[in-house]
Each structure stands twice: as structure tokens, then as C-alpha cells.
Amino acid sequence: MVHFVGAGPGAPDLITLRGAQLLKNADVVIYAGSLVNPELLELCPPQVKIHNSAAMDLEAVLAVMEQAETAGLTTVRLHTGDASLYGAIREQMDALSAKGIDFDVTPGVSSFCAAAAALGAEFTLPGVSQSLIVSRMAGRTPVPEREQLAALAEHGTSMVLFLSAGLLPQLQEELLRGAYTPDTPAALVYKASWPDEKLVRCTVGTLAQAGRENQITKTALVLVGDFLGKEYERSKLYDPAFSTGFRQGADTNSRGD
Predict the structure, then answer these.
(1) β-strand 185-190 against 198-203: which pairing, if any?
(2) Fewest CB atoms less than 10 Å from the CB: which of 46, 75, 208, 219?
């Protein structure tokens, strides 16, 4: 059996209880060494066989999985954050299915959640934004034409960008082609939840400068939008005038969440 496990954003205690238990019972672990905190490997039993996928291609990863399955061993494929975001797990799962190897997926805490927590931010503020766009700049890995960043930026909503810290000048230019202005709040979050985490608040117009001055070129998220500002409306759910299925408010005609 192969277990795909989201390791969380970095801090060892942010892996899920299920993920930690799977590591404790693993015979073989294949982990994304360039991104996963190696402290998590301390959860593994002494006899575990560990492979760092940073130096492996897909075929090498699959070969280890297949060998472990043939030997009746349990494999944990440890991905950073949540594996459903930029984890390249679909191709692994399809290959395992073709080989008749069983697998399951344990979700993890994504780094974009840890980044918001570090900033004390809420992506979906009433009266500001009720949507979040998760995307990336086109680089060595392209993005579909309809998902070009300038087009997504037209929405002007909350946005978090992965895998883009090394392209901040181009990123800034693309964002400004949309609905964001040079004064729109932004932030760089380097290694969210790690001991060397760094938070840099800036604006869309100063993103490239902020990255340059703080020497941030990788392992960082870019957060953009007015949710990082000071203005927002009070939530309806906890408004004393708002009725719900659990509480009667002053406004007897209002129901919902």
C-alpha cells in the first residue's frame, strides 16, 4: 500500500495526526527533500528506508514504490503542504493504478493557510473579498492561456501565488495589468511556519523591491489583495441582528450563514 501524505507547511507539529501515524508505521518513505522539513522523519521507525525524491525522477520514484509493494512493505510518499496543490501526485496515482497498486491520500495543511496565519490575515473578509485565487506565474512550467496572471488579476480578489518568488518583477507587472493598483496591499511569506520564517509586508507596486531588499527568491508565497488592508465589514453570522438556525436575532426576517 502506498500512502500519499501532506506534510504540512513546515513546522513538524502541523502534520495531521493521521499523517504522523502513517510515518510511524512506514517501511519506506519517499520525501520531497527540497521542501519537507527533515524533522518529520524522526517520526519514522528505526528500520525505515528513506529516499529523497529531490534527486529522483518519476520513474525512479515509481520503481521504489513497486519494489516495496512486491516485498509487502508499506510506503509513505511525503509531499510538502497539501499534495493536491502543485504536488504532481496525479501522475503517480495513475501509474500506480495501472500497476494494480493500492494507494490513498492524507491531506495536509497548505502553506497558504500557514502564511495567512503568520500574517494574522483572513482571505475572505466581508465587504472586501469572498473569493481566493490560488495560482502561479508562468515560468519553466507554463500555465494555460486562460489562466495568465493578468487575466486572473482582473478579478481584484484575494490571491496567493506559489512558485513565483523568483519572478517578482514580472509578477508585479502582470498584477498591475489587472484590477490591482500600486497601492494594493501585498506580502511575501518566506518559509511559513519554519523557524526561519520571514514576513515582508509591501504593496503590489513594491513587490519586486521588497523581494530584492529581503533577498527572497524562492520558498516563499506572494499574497495580494485588500484583505491585507485595514478596512472590512462586520460578519453577518455574528451580527446580533442576524438570525440563524441556532440563534434568534433582532432581524426576524433574516436567516442564513
Answers:
(1) antiparallel
(2) 46
* pLDDT tens, residue by residue, 105-140: 999 999 999 999 999 999 999 999 999 999 999 988
Where a domain ends, among 48, 72, 106? 106
Alpha helices in the chain (DSSP H): 17-24, 58-70, 90-99, 111-119, 149-153, 168-176, 207-213
3-state secondary structure of 28: strand
pLDDT tens readout for residues 184-222: 999 999 999 999 999 999 999 999 999 999 999 999 999
Kindly state the cell numbers that stand for 226.
Answer: 485588500
The region, left, alpha or beta by phi > 0 then psi within -120 to 50, assigned to residue 203 is beta
The answer as to whether 56 is a domain residue is yes
Domain extent for 38: 2-106
Residue pair 113/9 in contact (Cβ under 8 Å)? The answer is yes
The cell numbers describing 241, all together, are 441582528
> What are the DSSP calls for 64-93, one per residue?
HHHHHHHTT--EEEEESB-TTTT---HHHH
148: closest CA among 123, 178, 182? 178
pTM: 0.92
β-partners of residue 29 are 50, 76
> Residues 114, 24, 82, CA angle at the centre, nearest 5°?
30
The answer on 117 and 224 residing in a single domain is yes
DSSP 233: P
